[in-house]
């Protein structure tokens, strides 16, 4: 086990295996390129070692260039922009092979394709040392892949965690045995959002509220927002397929998290099963479902009160509120069962002051 900053990593792929994979990639690329002279375009920073070893094993003349892409974090979406180092040679009629260290969601790849869109290349191929098929959301073909890996956070051989780890010759994976993943449960108005805000600071967790993500998308008039709105306005659940895909993408944005507070998710059996699968892929699990228990009439009056200031159309109307509460009991009570069976259900009294309830929740979390 090694430590980088605040996190621990365990050995995952050793240098010898990386070396053999790169030899094979060099041979495969050479076969396709034939006698032409390719331009290898490395994507900095992560790919510097991969490029160096790949050209070492490449049996023929080649040129080497680098580009640098940088991600910046939006409020809920991570977009990739091109920065600093751009292409300098004329690539007209050249065979280009882009050399990436890792492809996960594929956002960077989309930008790379845009970058070469107007160049009159003879051929464009992508080689990536690592590929995470379950995280990948795009359709671009990746022509040469060294290793297909599960959705784990890895460092070493060029890849870093906050700047450290690039010099390691082996690949290490984040030790996730200490991750804390909580499902915060309870009917609308139970105070999940308020408590999640306090608990995420206290336990250094990432809070994902599916309701908030939907509302963010509605505000920004995305396709997802338009779709979700038609269900949300009536107090109905957004279809599983849409919700699960969105949740997975939110988790994916935080590969280094110490754990998550899931708020408003899962709400159906299918969502619960998909969450188990997602966390298992990361070598982790749901530690507990903590349910805030509050009487229906208190909920209705809390939500009517919130509706005066929250601007949420689903909070202002008593019928919609009662409908949401009954949807909660009908469709999601099975989840209590689901987690009870795994001995992971903890009920907490949700009536009292914010501080009182935080104390009760903290006791439950500390006991895990
Ligand atoms: P909330 O803010 O959690 O009360 O969610 C508000 C609305 O967003 C719900 O009434 C649903 O329409 C939608 N929504 C939020 N989370 C989910 C989910 N896990 N599955 C389906 N729909 C959801």
Report on this structure.
Helix content is 42%, strand content 24%. It has twelve helices and 15 strands. The protein has a six-stranded mixed β-sheet, sandwiched between helices. It starts with a strand and ends with a helix. Mean pLDDT is 91; it is low at 73-77. It binds adenosine monophosphate (AMP). The site of adenosine monophosphate has 16 residues, from helix 5 and helix 6.
Throw out a few tags for this protein.
24% strand, 42% helix, 5-stranded parallel β-sheet, binds adenosine monophosphate, 15 strands, 368 residues, single chain, alpha/beta, 6-stranded mixed β-sheet
The low-pLDDT segments are 73-77
- What is the beta-strand fraction? 15-25%
What is the share of helical residues? 40-55%
- Output mean pLDDT: 91
Q: What kind of sheet is the major sheet?
A: 6 strands, mixed
Ligand roster: adenosine monophosphate
Record the strand order, biggest sheet: 5-4-3-6-7-8
Q: What does the oligomeric state look like here? A: single chain
Order of helices and strands: EEHEHEEEHEEEEEHEHHHEHEHHHEH
Using only C-alpha atoms, the radius of gyration works out to: 24 Å
Estimate the global geometry from the Cα principal axes: elongated
Tally of extended strands?
15
Care to give the gist of this entry?
This protein has 368 residues and is α/β, with parallel strands linked by helices. It is built from 12 helices and 15 strands. It is elongated.
